[in-house]
């Protein structure tokens, strides 16, 4: 209102939901200073942020497999899971009271083709805590290799956990649950694969007569080759140029590795590429080609692409 004058009735309301700091006033003259809570615990759905990365065991090369299904499905063959936990609130420590694996389903292992190695995670400055679990157990538990729960995290203190699960002889869908305590509030956060359960394939599952590697190392019609035919994006894992024209691509969708020949001709209106380097993102199409009694996968329409991988 102008000049400090107020006319009529003034009414304001706050309806629904859980509110933070609220100021209600009929008229305000001069400055207003609002001091908010330092922690924001009540506003956070969960006081922790959890990031999960799959990684290979340094002592044994772990990999994916491609299930012989329609359509083919990529699964992780055992492997390890690196779980990083950070605080999501200011000025408060969060106590991590415990973590447990939960098996959602089991089924006999289906026939599969060897897939691709899982990329090693870069070394971290944080020393992780190691746990193992037997997912065959009726009520699986985490077994600590060194220190066990509870732990705590804050704005300046992060914890990492390496989880090594054993799927036994079955395919297993599972997730982790972490119990926490913060400012008198208790809760549980589900840890999974971006909203989907973790999917594990046993080391001893039935395999097709294929080898991990180029499409020529796979039998005709195997799921890894079928997946490679469907792929349109990938990463160059062996670079090439006009003088050394043979290169290789790892498809983003987990299909068999593709071999390609450096293109000597460039389509009109497209910039000529002088070479393809290791780690470069590319787009392409794949065409099955039969010759005598063999079938080859030919890469065509190869072009550099932006880096937006589709991790299986």
Which properties best describe this structure?
single chain; 1 helix; 2 domains; OB fold (Dihydrolipoamide Acetyltransferase, E2P); 5-stranded mixed β-sheet; 312 residues; mainly beta; 8-stranded mixed β-sheet; 3% helix
Written account of the structure:
The chain has about 300 residues and is mainly beta. The chain folds into 2 domains: about 50-200, no CATH class; about 215-305, Nucleic acid-binding proteins (OB fold (Dihydrolipoamide Acetyltransferase, E2P)), CATH 2.40.50. Helix content is about 5%, strand content about 40%. Strands 2, 3, 5, 6, 9, 11, 12 and 13 form an 8-stranded mixed beta sheet that branches. It has a 5-stranded mixed beta sheet with strand order 1-4-10-7-8, with no helix packed on it. A 5-stranded antiparallel beta sheet has the order 17-16-14-19-20, with helices on one face. The protein is globular. The chain starts with about 45 loop residues before the first strand and ends in an 8-residue tail after the last strand. Mean pLDDT is about 80; it is low at about 15-20 and about 35-40.
Number of domains: 2
Helix amount, in percent?
under 10%
Low-confidence stretches: 14-19, 33-38
Return the structural class: mainly beta
Give the SSE order as H and E letters.
EEEEEEEEEEEEEHEEEEEEE
Head-to-tail CA distance between termini: 60 Å
Q: How would you concisely characterize the structure shown here?
A:
This protein has 312 residues and is mainly beta. The chain contains 1 helix and 20 strands. The longest helix has 8 residues.
